[in-house]
Specification:
The chain is an all-alpha fold. The chain contains 27 helices and two strands. It has a two-stranded antiparallel sheet with strand order 1-2. Helix 10 runs antiparallel to helix 15 and helix 18 packs antiparallel against helix 19. The N and C termini lie far apart (about 75 Å).
């Protein structure tokens, strides 16, 4: 395990090499550095993971001290790496799935002017996420936390020449900063309470000092930590940045949704679960936010027409399941679903990128249709990913999502279970709506090809391979094949999380009624059948609903994500702009303006002395000398 630092050093070196090359290296060399650095990180994770599992360290945890970050009085946070079952699981997801996303991106981004710049940002993104999950203290974790926020800004706005992309990047950056502020306050409060930010020490001291459910300071701190988690993981009420994040290249969307940023909030709650277990109030909020978010996102995805936004709201919903599980105390199923979700969501996003390029940058699913015959391999990938998303039997999602619902029910969180069950129905409906409209039905893409282009990729990405035959390459096929295999068999992977995360509080021998275990499958199959009837066999029904006065209004509300953007603009943006306009000439500005005016006046006076005349300069020098002699003489 001595090679553990190489896990993040490799992508960090890749970032430095690509950043300082400033685009002067070839695309092939940039791909070798960008993809190869993540490959080295993945191989190191594999080696370290094997050593960890074959020779478990004492206490099932290995801490490797690198250096002391700073020393201020008694405050001496360290750069120390902590490897346990939870961080090993996260490392495997980040480097493994991240490697195949990078490999796909090496094909996808060919021909882009910022090819090397793209991979430098992607490498830094992965390195920051690895910092986050390896830190043994919350300050080190926060360092990586802010790093992924920066990289998301850089990658969402990668095609910065389009003002809309820049606006989406700024939106993601500002909204996640709100959550980050809550988290920073929580860290200050934790240090004030316990004098340390080491996670193990915090867990030990909090257990001794805080009674379960009897400490208001515990409630406040955990709710503040939850504020940070909902910001990064795009949960209510800080979820509005995620759909706009689709402005970045599709591999960026895959990396954000599958392996890095949105999983950070889930990881934070799992890592600090001891604190949350001491605050039942905070856990209720965790579960409630997850349940409401997964339902709102599900309804929103039902009416979206952009293929990537449908997947974005799907991610929001699936992260909601993970929050729901953590709120019910089912931390192990939450992390298990995080892993399986990484497999099938990366597969879905990368496949959607292939669809977009095959459609000449078209993203509206209603301008597609019949694509299963045109791109059969991509169709197979999308179908497998969708089956896993809907928890179809013997796919990875079947084992992880059903375990969440089962433990939520058995632990007595019936309303969370009911919300998750209805969310499973919505997931099946909107997921197969995408499949049926895109790959079945009438072909709309022939006419759309000559009249319309999608908004996502027309500023650079992949312009060298607009047609499907460009996909016949190994760096396109291999990532999709590998991810497809893991989307199928990922549910059979055993995660040794028992030493780190507790099970949900379930009475011994409690299994519930027999039908409870099979109900999620029945609901999902019913959702698939409903989607088939509405969007393939009887499309006139949703068309009629779209024309109805009440149903059209509801559909508009859902399509606009329940009006949260409008609400936030009304409550925050407009008052701030108005206040800025009203106060643009206040006394503070006048005072600052006076300073600037006095400096300009002084500059004008001094400039006037620079005449260029030799006699003037000699006279000034002589006068200065006389003045100096006079001062000395009178002194």
């Amino acid at each position: 395990m001595n090679f553990l630092p190489l896990v993040f050093i490799a992508p960090l070196l890749g970032f430095l090499i690509l950043a300082f090359s400033r685009g002067r290296i070839s695309e092939n060399l940039a791909a070798v550095v960008g993809v190869g650095s993540i490959g080295v990180s993945a191989l190191t994770t594999l080696t370290v993971g094997y050593d960890f599992l074959a020779h478990p360290p004492a206490g099932d945890s290995h801490v490797q001290l690198l250096w002391t970050w700073m020393s201020v009085g008694n405050f001496a946070p360290t750069f120390a790496l902590k490897l346990d079952a939870l961080s090993l699981t996260m490392l495997s997801v980040i480097t493994g799935v991240g490697f195949f996303i990078h490999l796909f991106a090496s094909w996808y981004m060919r021909g882009d002017d910022g090819y090397a710049r793209f991979f430098s940002y992607m490498n830094l993104f992965v390195a920051s996420m690895l910092f986050l999950v390896l830190g043994d203290n919350l300050l080190f974790l926060y360092f990586g936390w802010e790093g992924v926020g920066l990289c998301s800004y850089l990658l969402i706005g990668f095609w910065y020449k389009d003002p809309a992309n820049g606006a989406a990047a700024r939106k993601a950056f500002v909204i996640t900063r709100v959550g980050d502020t809550f988290m920073a306050i929580a860290l200050f409060m934790l240090y004030r309470e316990f004098g340390t930010l080491n996670i193990d020490e915090l867990s030990r001291l909090a257990t001794l000092q805080w009674p379960v459910g009897g400490s208001h300071i515990a409630d406040v701190i955990c709710l503040l930590l939850l504020g940070g988690a909902v910001g990064k993981s795009a949960q209510l009420p800080l979820q509005t940045w995620l759909p706009d994040a689709m402005a970045g290249p599709t591999p960026v969307s895959a990396l954000i949704h599958a392996a890095t940023m949105v999983t950070a909030g889930v990881y934070l709650i799992a890592r600090t679960h001891v604190l949350f277990d001491l605050s039942p109030l905070a856990l209720q909020w965790v579960g409630g936010i997850g349940a409401v978010t997964l339902l709102l996102a599900g309804f929103t995805a039902l009416v979206q027409t952009d293929i990537k936004k449908i997947l974005a709201y799907s991610t929001m919903s699936q992260i909601g399941y993970m929050f729901l599980a953590e709120g019910a105390g089912a931390y192990q199923p939450a992390v298990f679903h995080l892993m399986t979700h990484a497999f099938f969501k990366a597969l879905l996003f990368l496949s959607s990128g292939s669809v977009i390029l095959a459609m000449h940058h078209e993203q509206d699913i209603f301008n597609m249709g019949g694509l299963r015959k045109r791109i059969p391999f991509v169709f197979a990938c999308m179908l497998v990913g969708t089956l896993a998303l809907t928890a179809f039997p013997f796919t990875s999602g079947y084992y992880s999502k059903d375990e969440i619902l089962h433990q939520a029910y058995l632990s007595g969180h019936t309303w969370l279970w009911a919300a998750g069950l209805f969310g499973a129905f919505l997931t099946a409906v909107y997921s197969f709506r995408l499949i049926f409209i895109t790959f079945f039905g009438p072909e709309h893409w022939r006419a759309a090809k000559s009249t319309h282009h999608g908004a996502d990729e027309h500023h650079g990405g992949g312009q060298g391979h607009d047609t499907p035959h460009g996909a016949d390459t190994l760096d396109h096929h291999i990532p999709l094949i590998v991810l497809m295999v893991f989307a199928l068999i990922g549910g059979f992977i055993h995660l040794p999380l028992a030493s780190v995360l507790p099970e949900a509080a379930i009475h011994e021998g409690e299994h519930g009624p027999a039908y409870i275990e099979h109900l999620p499958l029945i609901v999902s199959l019913f959702g698939i059948l409903t989607s088939w009837l509405l969007f393939l066999r009887l499309p006139q029904i949703p068309a009629a609903l779209a024309r109805g006065a009440t149903t059209a209004w509801i559909g508009k509300l859902w399509k606009n994500a329940w009006g949260f953007d409008w609400l936030y603009e009304l409550l925050f943006t407009r008052p701030f702009v108005w206040l800025a306009k009203v106060n643009r000439n206040d006394f503070v500005d006048s005072f600052i303006g006076l300073i600037a005016a006095s400096l300009r006046g002084s500059s004008s006076v001094l400039t006037a002395t620079q005449t260029g005349g030799l006699r003037w300069y000699a006279a000034v020098a002589g006068a200065g000398l006389c003045a100096l002699i006079a001062v000395v003489a009178f002194h």
